[in-house]
Amino acid sequence: SFCMYGETTGETDEFGLPVRYNWALEYKGKAMVVYGHTPVVEPEWLNRTIDIDTGCVFGGKLTALRYPERELVSVNALEQYAIPSRPLTPVATTPLDDIGTIDIEDVTGKLVVPTQYAGTVIVHENQTAPALEVMSRFAIDPRWLIYLPPTMSPVETSSMAEYLERPEEAFAYYAKNGLAKVVCEEKHMGSRAVLVVCKDEASALKKFGAKDMKGVCYTRTGRSYFSDAALEAAFIDRVNVALTKADFWQKHDATWVCLDCELMPWSAKALSLIKDQYASVGAAASHALDETIAALQMADNSNTAIQTMLREYTERRAMVSDYVTAYQEYCAEVNSLDDYKLAPFHILATEGKTYFDQTHEWHMHQIAELCAADDKMLLATPYKVVDLSNEDEKQVAITWWEQLTAAGGEGMVVKPYSFVVRGKSGIIQPAVKVRGREYLRIIYGPEYTAPKNIERLKQRGLSAKRSLAVKEFALGAEALNKFVRNEPLRAVHQCVFAVLALETESIDPRL
Predict the structure, then answer these.
(1) How far apart are alpha carbons 420 and 134 in whole angstroms?
(2) Nearest one of 340, 349, 379, 375 to 225, comparing CA atoms
(3) Any bridge partners for residue 183, and if so which?
(4) Alpha carbons 265 and 342: distance in angstroms, whole number
(5) Which of 12, 156, 191, 452 sits CB 3.0–4.6 Å from 169 for a disulfide?
(6) What is the model's pLDDT at position 359?
(7) What's the rounded Cα separation, in Å, for the pair 450 and 315?
């Protein structure tokens, strides 16, 4: 009876009818509640509740809910059978102003989050506190924060003495887990970005409660990518135009889309890091080693110890030179929108649907069509499908990786052909990155390739990083699945928050 009639305030409105509290707004139960007796023009999900009384008796519609599909089916009334005491008015756009705020009770203490792909993920209290700081102070409007991408584990350490990472180990890992095919994608050196783009402002208002905007672009920690709102709006508009030109909205029956992307150049977000860390190290090391080498060259060349030192410092100077060359590959000026390049690689979700059931090759095909609509800003990621039983195909991919990295590229990402693959002990890695020898010089320092250093680095442990990658992948997928099922935003945010909290784990950031 409570669900049917709700709790009243004890007052009556101008029509003499009781005023009811909006109990659904505060509902936090796990059970889905389907109810009526409060006629509405259109049914809308709110906190796992839905009012499907669309006023058939008053000449509206008769609405049914298909369960568990959650499909709504409505037929118009043949006539108006009764005159309502109070006129039927459209329900205001989902009151996201009220439910967009994160409830601190949902994200503090120990979190136990059930997921479809990785079972129950536990986040400890010491991880939630710093995540709450980021979410509450720096994150974008939570109404848009429907997904955070997972971290990615490196490939297992190469058996070749001079390499830390190579594609052979990626192929061996997936073959060992029973996969027949993988997809190798070029790894772009940019910043991970999530785009949520709506067809128009009306769609953004209806789905996200946002006025006068068509979408957002945010980082993997939930912060706005752009500090300039006008630049972000222009960027979203340009992606929207490409989506429209590519007939994306009609093809996918969509009014909004969530895309996982890489946004370049890297210097657009990491310029201060490049200047303050990499360039400082490069300049200081170059100057110091040049002075040292000059001094040694003026010393007694017949002295064996001096010859050894000169050879050692000359080798170190060459490694520093390689280090400077490596990071300079990613230094590009950004003065306008035309200086950005966006490389989408996953179509994550549209209205009522996620795309985790599609292969990575399908995603690459769809995105290539989108990128063709604006090839000046949108970049279709080069990729290769590799049959793991075919030695020639594997060698072609390895040679391609060698060429990419020799030309200054970061490397490639190797993924299972299917988006999600289950192994004997759960899902296997959704992707592993294979970074180039010179790119890793930026990560591990100029002299990481010295025999004694690379030998030590080969002992690095990957188990914690791999466990984290699987957990975060499962949580991100769970967040999107909940969102497209119209579950409460607090349920979506708990998954998103858990990803952010797990990122506080003390794992070597160079992995």
Answers:
(1) 30
(2) 340
(3) 385, 415
(4) 9
(5) 156
(6) 96
(7) 9
Alpha carbon distance 363, 128 (integer Å)? 33
Mean pLDDT confidence for 121-140: 85
Highest mean pLDDT pick, 85-99, 387-401, 487-501: 387-401
The contacts of residue 269 (CB under 8 Å, 6+ apart) are 191, 219, 225, 263
pLDDT(326) > 90? no
Helical ranges in 62-115 per DSSP H: 96-99
**HEC-encoded secondary structure of 363-389:** HHHHHHHHHHHHCCCECCCCEEEEECC
As a 3-state breakdown, the chain gives helix, strand, coil percent values, each rounded to 5, of 40, 20, 40
| Distance, CA of 66 to CA of 49 (rounded, Å) | 14
Give the helix/strand (H/E) hosting 19. strand 18-20
Contacts of 43 (CB under 8 A, 6+ apart): 50, 51, 52, 54, 63, 65, 72
Which tokens sit at 107?
């994200």
Separation between Cα atoms, residue 323 and residue 326, nearest integer Å: 5
- Answer yes or no: are the C-beta atoms of 108 and 127 closer than 8 Å: no
- Interacting residues of 361 by C-beta distance below 8 A, sequence separation 6+: 183, 383, 385, 417
Q: Which position has the token pair 């043949």? A: 78
What Cα–Cα distance (Å) separates residue 21 from each residue in 3, 5, 26, 283, 380? Answer: 11, 10, 10, 66, 51
For the residues 370-376, what does the mean pLDDT come to? 95
The DSSP output letter for 58 is G
Mean predicted confidence (pLDDT) in 301-327: 89
Which one, of 21, 74, 25, 71, lies nearest residue 48 by Cα?
Answer: 25
- Contact at 8 Å (CB) between 179 and 388? yes
What is the C-alpha separation between 313 and 489, in angstroms, rounded?
Answer: 58
Which tokens go with 278? 């990499």
Distance separating alpha carbons of residues 405 and 438, to the nearest angstrom: 7
Q: How many CB atoms lie within 10 A of CB 502?
A: 26
For 222-264, give the secondary structure using H, E and C: CEECCCCHHHHHHHHHHHHHHHHHCCHHHHCCCCEEEEEEEEE
